[in-house]
Design goal:
There is one protein chain. The protein is α/β, with parallel strands linked by helices and 503 residues long. The protein folds into three domains: 7-240, 3-Layer(aba) Sandwich (Rossmann fold); 256-331 and 418-503, Rossmann fold; 338-416, no CATH class. 33% of the residues lie in helices and 25% in strands. It is built from 17 helices and 22 strands. Helix 13 (372-385) packs across helix 14 (402-415). The protein is globular, with a radius of gyration of 24 Å. It starts with 6 loop residues before the first strand and ends in an 8-residue tail after the last helix.
């Protein structure tokens, strides 16, 4: 064993107004190790990484690299110490080539002072080949898949001689095969002595790729486990402070009348003759492969995408929904897949975001002045109901953790009194504790007679929460499976059926 760990963070504390984000926290990373960090949203994972990356400065504590104390006061200082962070939102320039992105601001120069493109392409290609990628250095980044762009970010880090690589939810937008390629690259890096900090909520991935896992809760160090010597139940108990007896809290439901029915919905190249209904008190799941058209279907129903043909019925009555505003007024709510891009106004506060869909209820007469106190009272109701962790309702949503941002989206949806609620990949990037809260909420909504549509790529989630599952393949409905017939094999088989394309 090495005399000193590659990285040691000792007694790190960091506070924000009203919140102690890190409380005397300890963490270490060895050379050639993949070390997972696990914790609920708001536990302090992002803050810890930002301290390591020079974005935040701790009030106390120290950072040591190979046993030597270092001062990391900026992002550039972190990079100089061999620390690189690959964020969920990739930071590449799409109209520049791969090589140009890798060496941006560090381009090799000729004797005359011009950029040496041949040398830059050659150096970039050497790094890319060393990772085992199929990417050409002269390709425009905008033409690459998300998985390939991620590989470019790794190559960029290695070009700066990174020895500590932080990967924050790197698989959230990847297919299963792309995850496999990423793990192959990570294993190569591990053999080269690179230490990798791996942040993920996906338990199966942590067990597949990590050597050790550290759990943090409420900004405090809870414990570090050797991955091969622990199990999911133990980690979950460490995360939430108690053992989750039943992860998917399915209960036998009572159904009412049909809340929403769609017949023969079509949108050329996207959706082809999709028909289904959801009853009051029912959770109707939507399974399928990535790109099958499930998100597009939800957006058509909500009015965010145009309906070319077909009919939507709400409470038995035909409705024309040609905008999200019309969808909201009809009684349909959507928790979108992209919470930051489509679900929230990041530069607005919690109160504003929570009530934006129902502000007209709090507006006075002709001039439309908003009754601020009533808005705050309404927002506070949902903040308490959904356990949104925020110092005040005036906190900007961009400053909340991902899980708490998702809860604000839920608050916004519920505040509009929706009777049919569509959840689109609503637990992606959310920890097990927050997932449990959302599952409980969905069960409560179903018990109240709400009709719920749930899109998920998490098979256990679909099987555990839904009463029926509609399977979509290439924009076409390939089957509807009842609860008693649920199996992973059945869903995957229907999801793999090649649909007949529109003529």
């Amino acid at each position: 064993m090495e005399q000193y760990p590659l990285l040691a963070m000792r007694n790190i504390s960091k506070s924000f107004p009203g919140v102690k984000a890190l409380d005397n926290l300890n963490f270490d990373l060895r050379s050639g190790e993949v070390h997972g960090i696990l914790g609920e949203n708001g536990a302090g994972k992002s803050t810890l990484i930002k301290v390591l990356g020079g974005i935040y400065h701790p009030e106390q504590g120290e950072i040591l690299i190979n046993g030597q104390k270092v001062s990391i006061q900026s992002v550039m200082a972190a990079k100089a110490q061999g620390i690189s962070i690959i964020h969920q939102e990739l930071m590449l320039v799409p109209h520049m080539t791969v090589a140009e992105n890798i060496y941006l601001t560090r381009e090799p120069k000729t004797h005359s002072g011009r950029i040496d493109k041949a040398q830059m392409n050659a150096d970039a290609q050497t790094i890319l080949d060393g990772l085992g990628t199929q990417i050409r250095a002269d390709t425009l980044v905008g033409r690459l898949s998300i998985a390939q762009q991620q590989q470019v970010e790794i190559a960029k880090a290695l070009s700066m001689n990174a020895k500590i690589l932080v990967m924050d939810e790197p698989t959230s937008s990847l297919t299963e095969s792309e995850v496999g390629v990423l793990f192959q690259i990570m294993r190569r890096l591990r053999q080269q002595g690179v230490g990798i900090i791996y942040i993920s909520h996906r338990m199966a991935e942590l067990f597949e790729i990590t050597d050790r896992i550290t759990v943090i809760r409420d900004g405090r160090f809870i414990g570090t486990c050797v991955t091969s010597e622990t199990d999911a139940d133990s980690l979950i108990a460490m995360m939430v402070g108690a053992k989750l007896e039943s992860f998917y809290t399915f209960t036998k439901r009572t159904f009412g009348e049909v809340a929403l029915e769609v017949k023969n919905i079509r949108r050329k190249g996207v959706l082809n003759d999709v028909s289904f209904s959801v009853r009051e008190g029912e959770v109707l799941g939507f399974g399928g492969l990535v790109g099958a058209g499930r998100t597009e279907l939800m957006e058509v129903i909500y009015g965010a995408q145009p309906l070319e043909s077909g009919q939507i019925y709400y409470k038995g009555q035909p409705v024309k929904i040609d905008s999200p505003r019309k969808g909201i007024k009809t009684g349909i709510g959507l928790v979108p897949e992209d919470r930051k891009g489509k679900g929230l106004f990041l530069d607005k506060n919690v109160a504003w975001n929570s009530t934006i869909n129902c502000l007209d209820r709090f507006a006075n007469g002709t001039f439309g002045l908003v009754r601020t106190k009533e808005v705050e009272k309404e927002a506070e109701k949902y903040q308490k109901a959904f356990n949104i962790k925020t110092p005040t309702l005036n906190q900007l949503v961009m400053n909340l953790s991902g899980g708490n941002q998702q809860k604000v989206v839920l608050a916004k949806t519920m505040a509009a009194d929706a009777e049919v609620i569509m959840f689109d990949e609503h637990t992606r990037g959310i920890d097990v504790g927050a997932k449990q809260e959302i599952y409980n909420l969905m069960n409560e909504l179903a018990a109240q007679g709400k009709g719920i549509l749930m899109v998920s790529s998490d098979m256990p989630e679909l099987l555990g929460m839904c009463d029926r599952i509609v399977v979509i393949s290439e924009g076409r409905q390939t089957g509807i499976v009842d609860k008693e017939d649920f199996s992973q094999e059945t869903i995957l088989s229907l999801a793999s059926i090649s649909a007949v394309k529109d003529a």
